[in-house]
Design a protein that fits this description.
The complex is a heterodimer. By secondary structure, chain A is mainly α. Helix content of chain A is 16%, strand content 6%. The chains are: A mainly alpha, B mainly alpha. At the A-B interface, α1 of A face α2, α6 and α10 of B.
């Protein structure tokens, strides 16, 4: 009885238990089809636990990646490990055989570091079927797979450059933070290194954006850039040739190189004289782009003369008198001066300009042209012309010098005739007593100059007017007509010497020929 | 209280068993309490998984313990050459110790993973252990010599009479108390059916507890000194237990016979499964440290 029961026990539980010992637990859903006693060796290698070969025999896509030395399974975290170290089994259907938590994954280990914006993306944004480029369609059609993506940017990103660039590896230029910033792009390594102002130009400034929306395109190739003119408009309209660099530098068009060598004449304004030494900025104050009026000197220069030369509202440019040699010199000639109201002649020609035009602190030109505006009136009120202050010296003087008097004495009441013409002015017009020249004080009566040689004998009859008897040619009594006297010479009388009758006597205390007889009686002479 | 060598032996084994069990449980609590599908991701998994450095070790050591516990006890019990090698009850205790700690270690080896078909191997082991405890209970219901050998019915009766005499002679108990003790320790020699042995045991135990309570209250009122009273109660207790054991002796002896029929096959079954398990494990390359 005892033995029978014992055997029953053994058969009852033993059979079941033998089978039960084989599997230590249910397989996961993924491997559920491998459940069963006959499948053990599909994964297990006798005597060698679970060998990788068997895993990779099924998981060929992983095997390929390992052989190609790419992907997570060749990372330091996974390489050399047994598959089962991470992907264990027999923990039931719901076991996470791929224990993959997005937030825990160090994506660097997959061979593709998540940098910049990539790090912010959710996994399924990239790990989507549409981005799987693997030729193996089983992967492409597989749900929730992380395989099959290419590391080439274009496999996920649209080629914005429409294959116009020499490379499809965006990373050569772009970083991971912002497409717009081609942060890894070094323009300096291109055929057109950015220098000077070019560095500050926005990319779109040269690389034009065309189209909108999906057709938006920015050109980076296929345009000329060898010459400045390929991008820049020639503001000089070809005047200076095509080589901008001969004058301009990349630090700005306003910065001119080789200034000394610059042919300013090409601008239409030849730099001469002092202009040659003026710094560019002195004229081009607002830069070289700013057009400068240069038709008139006054466009740049202040009118020193403060409009002195404007006449009737008409502006006269400096260039009429000055040139580029400087304002101190003047091209204003004597001929030009002579065209003015005040022609230079005589001594005026020898007078330095300053004598007349720099009488104050500054040059002045609009001056009164009256002589006394410059010259001192030496005559006081002696000459009527000066009495009202408007004396014109030239009435008497000439510009050759004061001493030379060119006075038409005939204009006066006292015409110079005869001997008077040969008399030096000072004989009449110099007062020895006053030691000064006199004009108005001179009496036109003969005796105002001449001595009364007749000692007053003709005072009464002729008011001492010498001209009654004498002419200006000399003192001969040329105009005396004895017949007009009371005593007409007749007969022998005509032949008698004057002295026979007119003898010298003392008259008024002076020995004088006596012409005025008290009596014409014959007895006075004849006995 | 004087602790006998035998008690020290028992306590030592119990302490070893408890400490090992508790330490492993404490160390692996976080792991063992994890759901099955999460355990793989625990840091302790490498150590405590069934094929782990510790987990696999628990399995091997636990299995060896059971093997040694069963084989050594069987040899001592059944091979005449070793019949005088130590007291059989000490071997039994050692057998119980090894066959308790062994399954506990195997339990840790399984990492409390009872699900699936493989659990039958565990439950067969558990059945052996449980049946062992039942056997131990039945074993204790059969009076034995100090060496653990079974006493005959007559020997047991003599013991009972001795106890009565010691109570009557040494403690000067009143006749009413003695009558009360006799009444409660009456041995019913009517054979109890095997099917009602356990219920009878329970019934008798409850009755005797009530009886002891009554006797205690009576003794309290009597003139017996406090020290004597304790000794009297101990003797009465022994007498009551002995009375119960005498009443159930034949039934327990029969039950014990049948118990062997269950306990041993479970042990053999477990052993066979273990061998298959070990064999499969080795074949698949899981060799622990070897």
């Amino acid at each position: 009885m005892k033995i029978t029961v014992k055997i029953a026990f053994l058969f009852l539980f033993g059979g079941i238990s033998l089978f039960a010992q084989i599997s230590p637990g249910e397989l996961t859903k993924a491997h559920a089809e491998l459940e069963g006693l006959s499948n053990c060796t599909k994964c297990h290698t006798l005597g060698d636990k679970v060998a990788n070969d068997k895993c990779l025999a099924c998981h060929a896509e992983i095997k390929v990646r390992i052989e190609q030395d790419r992907g997570y399974h060749v990372s330091s975290e996974a390489i050399g490990k047994n598959c089962s170290a991470c992907h264990s089994e027999h923990f039931g259907r719901d076991f996470e055989i791929v224990h993959f938590h997005h937030e825990e994954l160090n994506h660097d280990l997959t061979g593709f570091k998540l940098l910049g914006e990539h790090a912010k993306l959710k996994c399924d944004v990239c790990h989507a079927s549409k981005f799987i480029v693997d030729n193996n369609k089983t992967i492409k059609n597989r749900k929730n797979t992380f395989l099959g993506l290419s590391q080439k940017c274009a496999s996920c990103h649209e080629n914005y450059h429409k294959e116009t660039l020499s490379t499809d590896d965006c990373r050569q230029c772009h970083g991971f933070n912002d497409w717009k910033k081609a942060e890894k792009f070094d323009h300096q390594k291109t055929d057109f290194p950015l220098e000077g102002k070019h560095k500050n130009v926005k990319c779109e400034g040269c690389h034009k954006i065309t189209g909108t929306g999906e057709n938006k395109f920015q050109e980076f190739t296929g345009f000329k850039f060898g010459r400045c003119g390929d991008c820049h408009a020639d503001v000089h309209k070809g005047k200076f040739g095509k080589n901008c660099k001969s004058c301009h530098v990349v630090n700005g068009f306003a910065v001119i190189k080789n200034r000394k060598n610059f042919d300013h004449g090409k601008t239409g304004f030849i730099l001469k004289g002092k202009h040659s030494n003026v710094k560019c900025e002195s004229c081009h104050k607002s830069g070289f782009k700013q057009k400068i009026d240069h038709q008139f000197c006054a466009d740049c220069h202040e009118d020193y003369h403060k409009g002195e030369f404007s006449r009737d509202g008409l502006f006269r440019d400096c260039a009429e008198c000055h040139d580029e040699k400087g304002f101190k010199s003047s091209s204003f000639s004597i001929e030009e001066h002579n065209k003015s109201q005040f022609a230079l002649s005589g001594a005026h020609l020898a007078v330095p300009c300053t004598e007349c035009h720099l009488t104050e602190e500054r040059w002045t030109f609009r001056k009164k042209i009256e002589c006394i505006a410059c010259h001192e009136n030496k005559h006081g009120n002696e000459i009527a012309l000066f009495k009202d202050g408007k004396g014109n010296c030239l009435v008497c003087h000439i510009t050759d010098g004061w001493k030379t008097v060119n006075f038409d004495h005939d204009q006066t009441k006292f015409k110079l005739e005869g001997k008077h013409k040969n008399v030096h002015c000072s004989e009449c017009h110099f007062s020895k007593e006053e030691r000064t020249k006199i004009f108005s004080k001179i009496d036109s009566a003969c005796l105002s100059c001449h001595e009364d040689y007749h000692s007053g004998q003709f005072q009464a009859a002729y008011d001492n007017d010498c001209k009654s008897c004498h002419g200006f040619e000399g003192w001969s009594a040329k105009y005396f007509d004895h017949s007009k006297t009371k005593f007409k010479l007749e007969g022998a009388h005509k032949n008698v010497d004057c002295e026979k009758c007119h003898k010298k006597e003392t008259i008024n205390g002076k020995i004088t020929v006596k012409y005025k007889m008290e009596s014409i009686a014959c007895s006075v002479c004849h006995s | 209280m004087i602790i006998t060598l035998n008690q020290l032996y028992k306590i030592s084994l119990f302490l070893i068993l408890s400490v090992i069990s508790v330490i492993i449980l404490y160390f692996g609590w976080d792991y063992y309490t994890l759901p099955l599908n999460k355990r793989f991701f625990s840091e302790l998994h490498t150590l405590l998984k069934p094929s782990g450095a510790l987990g696999h070790g628990f399995g091997i050591i636990g299995s060896l313990m059971m093997l040694v516990g069963v084989v050594s006890y069987m040899i001592r019990k059944r091979v005449k050459r070793f019949s005088r090698l130590g007291a059989l009850k000490n071997w039994l205790i050692f057998h119980i110790f090894l066959c308790t700690l062994g399954p506990i270690l195997v339990l840790y080896h399984t990492a409390f993973k009872f699900g699936g078909l493989v659990s039958i191997s565990f439950w067969s082991m558990a059945a052996v252990v449980v049946s062992g405890f039942i056997g131990r209970f039945i074993y204790l219901q059969i009076p034995r010599t100090i060496e653990g050998n079974e006493l005959s019915f007559n020997d047991v009766n003599k013991l009972n009479i001795n106890l009565t005499q010691r109570l009557r002679e040494n403690y000067n108990l009143s006749e009413s108390i003695l009558l009360m003790i006799d009444e409660f320790s009456f041995v019913d020699l009517e054979e109890i059916k095997l099917s009602s042995a356990i219920s009878s045991f329970i019934k008798k135990t409850i009755e005797q507890r009530k009886a002891l309570k009554k006797i205690k209250s009576v003794l309290k009122k009597s003139e017996i000194s406090k020290e004597n009273r304790k000794e009297v109660i101990r003797l009465i207790k022994s007498k009551l237990v002995l009375t119960r054991k005498i009443s159930l002796l034949k039934s327990m002896q029969k039950l014990f016979g049948y118990w062997h029929v269950a306990h041993l096959p479970f042990a053999i079954l477990m052993l066979l499964i273990m061998l298959v398990h070990v064999g499969v494990t080795i074949v698949f390359g899981y060799r622990w440290v070897f």
